[in-house]
From TrEMBL:
InterPro entries in the record: PAS
Domain of life: Bacteria
Listed name of the protein: PAS domain-containing protein
Length: 152
């Protein structure tokens, strides 16, 4: 039987490193945006209107863009940002009613954790993504969502 041990050591804080809470950020979207800017995972934060507040570098690359700034401030369903396609062999553009059901937006409308597969076109490449999204709340109200993506 294989035996695996894992030991984790806390990282030594650097003098300039502050958590978003230590920096005085009270807006939850702002806090998640600050954390996501340094993330190694593909993730993004959108506000209640579906506007991308922040994205990690890996997320920008996953959607076929070079920098997170190319996503920031744009509507999640803008085909120039995220071109959603269906699961047919042809990879046709996803219909309007289905686009609203992708996990980042479903987390907004349902107020609950959402998970599902998404298919996107980035240039000549089609990618299937596993997406998980959670609503971000402030004073009990959903003000956005935090999503993470993995290529399937």
């Amino acid at each position: 039987m294989t035996h695996i041990e894992l030991s984790l050591s806390p990282l030594a804080p650097t003098p300039l490193a502050q958590s978003p809470l230590e920096a005085g950020m009270t807006d939850p979207l702002e806090r998640w945006a600050a954390s996501l800017a340094k993330a190694e995972e593909s993730g993004l934060v959108i506000d209640a209107a579906g506007i991308i507040v922040a994205a990690s570098k890996p997320c920008a690359r996953l959607f076929g863009l070079s920098q997170p700034a190319e996503l920031t401030g744009r509507y999640m369903l803008d085909p120039e940002v995220v071109y959603l396609i269906d699961f047919t062999a042809a990879g046709n553009e996803l219909g309007e009613s289905e686009r609203e059901k992708i996990p980042p937006l479903l987390a907004l409308t349902s107020g609950r954790l959402a998970r599902g597969l998404m298919r996107v076109r980035t240039g000549s490449d089609n990618r299937t993504l596993d997406s998980i999204a959670t609503p971000v709340r402030q004073d009990g109200e959903v003000v956005g969502s935090l999503s993470f993506f993995a290529v399937v």
